[in-house]
Amino acid sequence: MSKKHLSRLNAPKSWPIQRKGIKWIIRPNPGAHKLKDCIPLSILLKNILHYAKTTREVKAILNKGEILVDKKIRKDHKLPLGIMDVFEIPKTKEAYRIFINNKNKFILVKIKKEETNIKPYKIIDKKYLKNKKIQLNLYGGRNLILDKNDYNVGDSVIIDLTNNKIKSHLKLEKNSLVYLIGGKHKGNIGTIEKIEKPLGISGKTEIILKSGKDKLSTLKDYAFVISKDITLEENGK
Q1: Which of 55, 46, 51, 60 is nearest to 18 (CA)?
Q2: Residues facing residue 145 across a β-bridge
Q3: CA neighbor of 126 nearest in space, from 114, 116, 136
């Protein structure tokens, strides 16, 4: 049981579920996201959208091919979903993007149809390959191999999900709009006012950003650069 399921008490705090009552809850399959950074498709349909009450009902919905994630039909009820994934139900003309709010809970933010074609990815690592090729390792487990070395770790790229090509490049710099994916300010959105020099031996860099009326200090590693084309207004509530 423990390999297929997870104790509700040990489930990530970001999952909007009841902790008492039934002991076990579905465990997501291994995938691009760590357990603490993902939510199973089954829980999203049952506990956030309330479109199903049981796993059997979830499977019935998925088997009809009615759910799209990042423009692909998904039928695995244990599919791990994470931040920035695009979730669609074409039958009801619903479309959402997945976020974690500043209360550390997964939420769905409604988006317009034209926004379902784009998805931002944070560059978390960069490698140099043969023939002067560059490999970008992206948040969420995806990789890109490019000819040009125009991208830095910490920047973001907007991918067109209809052709899997880079639509735009967002640099991590002063005045960049960022969404925080870690630290005590996780889930907040703000504009970078200052990037500090690396701290001590660890080499960690801090950033100062303005979020509403507040000024927040956090690590550069937690900043996910996003564009104004990404709908955010429901996030952080």
Answers
A1: 46
A2: 135
A3: 136
The three-state secondary structure class of 115 is helix
* Lookup: tokens for 123: 């560059």
Q: Tokens 């008490």 — which residue?
A: 9
CB under 8 Å to 101, separation ≥6 — which residues?
Answer: 107, 187, 235, 236, 237
Regarding pTM above 0.70, the answer is yes
Q: Which tens digit of pLDDT belongs to each residue from 62-120?
A: 999 999 999 999 999 999 999 999 999 999 999 999 999 999 999 999 999 999 999 99
Rounded to whole angstroms, what are the CA distances from 20 to 8, 24, 26? Answer: 7, 10, 15
Structure tokens at 153: 């770790």
Beta strands in 71-188 (DSSP E): 72-73, 80-81, 86-89, 94-100, 106-110, 118-128, 134-138, 143-146, 156-160, 165-170, 177-180
**Angle at CA of residue 143, ends 138 and 147, nearest 5°:** 110
Distance from C-alpha of 211 to C-alpha of 208, rounded to nearest angstrom: 10
Task: Extract the tokens encoding 211.
Answer: 């979020």
Q: Are 118 and 137 contacting, i.e. CB atoms less than 8 angstroms apart?
A: no
Distances (CA, A) of 127 to 132, 136, 164: 10, 7, 20
Contact between 185 and 218 under an 8 Å Cβ cutoff? The reply is yes
Residue pair 91/5 in contact (Cβ under 8 Å)? The answer is: no
Cα angle for residues 128, 167, 95 (degrees, 5° grid):
120
